[in-house]
Design goal:
single chain; alpha+beta; eight-stranded antiparallel sheet; two-stranded antiparallel sheet; 10 strands
């Protein structure tokens, strides 16, 4: 993301470029100006997103250390019945209503009994941690969202998502995600253009000596950007699925194309899978305040039936919201290879009444799931988190080099003359018209991008007017 406007040593009225590459020669100044404005004005949002994303990438391991007492226990000979573990949790926190139970993901881990407790924030429940071997309660912590983030990771997650400013704060992260792909692709075009010019100059021996100063910064900026390009595009795309305005458009598009993520209903008489248009908020839906509180003995049979239906790994058993409803049992293993099948189980008859296999999800729903888990650093475990940390650090480095180049061209060092305005007039109409239509369409689909782009163009026009007035 280069934060600089290059110059050309020419005078007189602008003439439309001719010959091969005329359209790109005319568009390049516009791309460069857009890259400059985005770099200077949007980079602070990207920098905050990168810094908080770097913190979140490390939060999984930090959580394990900070909450080791609640999360880990010595491995015992045999596990106590789930019903006994749930009863212990309820005895420890009688004010709570049990909504679901999460079994340990591996030996030496605790069982989580999730409860609705008055006074908790939205999408937050109380997780009571129970030793699965002794049924001893190890502690209780607030648990946020479907990922089960504990207080420290939840604080970092909300910092990354909205800076702890609530819904208004989400504008910052959506603006960053909206512009990241534009800045990255624009930088790629400028990098290719620069490489071609350098190759031509080298072939005619027009360049000699070591590369220093701004040119060296520009070269390093471009190299980091090219290496990080694919990852930055991925972060932008997956980030937009969580956004408020663009995310709603993504949901509507997926619903219209039949790509919504299906879900399984546990209501009596309705155990068929149906499409869910949610899935981007990161919130879990556990029963609600009316969830059953006296069904402890049933969880043992429900768990046995679910295992018999080929569900494996850590499970989440959602208790019925009202008498007569089924238990919803979900695999919650988000690491590759994933286990994300679901079944509904009638606790009285101890039989499966409905099932939804992840293999049967539409391809777009699978891609969305994989994208979300990879964005959160869960899909490939530690390797995933290292890649995310490297991308965040790379983006911060790109922004640093961008501002360094801007400083190296500051007015006291000679800012130079910017590219002439109006060179877009030399673009062939067959290229300009579709490009303009595409820009408008993308701006409508990604509203914050469209609004801010309009503001940048208006700013550029005003600067042009001021420049003409000062020359009179």
């Amino acid at each position: 993301m280069s934060t600089t406007i290059e110059t050309v040593p020419t005078t007189g009225p602008a003439r439309p470029p001719t010959g091969r590459g005329a359209s790109w020669a005319a568009l390049r100044p516009l791309v460069l100006r857009l890259h400059f404005y985005a770099g200077v004005l949007v980079a602070p949002f990207l920098l905050v997103a990168a810094a908080t994303g770097l913190l979140y990438a490390a939060s999984w391991q930090v959580e394990e250390v900070v909450y080791a007492h609640e999360l880990s226990v010595p491995v015992g000979r045999a596990e106590a019945p789930l019903s006994q573990q749930v009863a212990a949790a309820r005895a420890a926190r009688p004010e709570g209503k049990v909504t679901s139970v999460r079994t340990p993901e591996e030996p030496g881990r605790t069982t989580r009994v999730l409860m609705d407790v008055p006074g908790l924030a939205e999408s937050t429940e109380l997780a009571v941690f129970v030793d699965p071997y002794t049924a001893e309660v190890r502690g209780a912590l607030e648990s946020y969202g479907s990922s089960g983030a504990l207080p420290l990771r939840a604080w970092i997650s909300q910092l990354h998502r909205h800076l702890h400013l609530g819904e208004p704060g989400r504008i910052y992260s959506e603006l960053a995600a909206s512009w990241l792909w534009v800045v990255a692709l624009g930088g790629l075009l400028l990098w290719f253009s620069r490489r071609r010019r350098e190759a031509r100059a080298a072939s005619t021996r027009q360049e000699t000596g070591a590369v220093t100063g701004r040119r060296r910064s520009l070269g390093r900026h471009g190299l980091v950007g090219v290496w990080a390009l694919a990852g930055l595009l991925f972060l932008s795309a997956t980030g937009l699925t969580w956004s408020k305005y663009a995310g709603e458009n993504v949901d509507e598009l997926r619903a219209a194309l039949g790509w919504s993520t299906p879900s399984l209903s546990a209501s009596s008489g309705d155990h068929a899978a149906h499409a869910s248009q949610g899935g981007h908020s990161g919130h879990s839906g556990h029963g609600g305040p009316g969830a059953a509180t006296a069904a402890d003995p049933a969880v043992d049979g429900v768990a046995r039936v679910a295992r018999g239906a080929n569900l494996s790994g850590p499970l989440e058993m959602v208790l019925p919201a009202k008498p007569g409803d089924a238990y919803l049992v979900k695999e919650v293993d988000n690491t590759w290879p994933q286990r994300l099948d679901q079944v509904t189980v009638d606790p009285a008859a101890e039989q499966v009444t409905g099932q939804l296999r992840f293999a049967d999800h539409p391809p777009a729903a699978k891609l969305t799931r994989w994208g979300i888990d990879a964005h959160m650093g869960r899909l490939f475990g530690l390797a995933n988190q290292i890649v995310l940390a490297a991308l965040a650090a790379g983006l911060m480095l790109l922004i640093g080099y961008g501002y360094l180049m801007w400083w190296q061209r500051r007015p006291t060092r000679g800012f130079g003359r910017a590219y002439r305005r109006g060179t877009w007039k030399g673009v062939h109409l067959g290229v300009l018209a579709p490009l303009a239509a595409l820009t408008v369409g993308v701006g409508l689909f990604v509203p914050l991008l469209g609004i801010s782009l309009g503001a940048f163009l208006l700013l550029d026009v005003l600067l042009g007017v001021r420049s003409r007035l000062t020359r009179r």
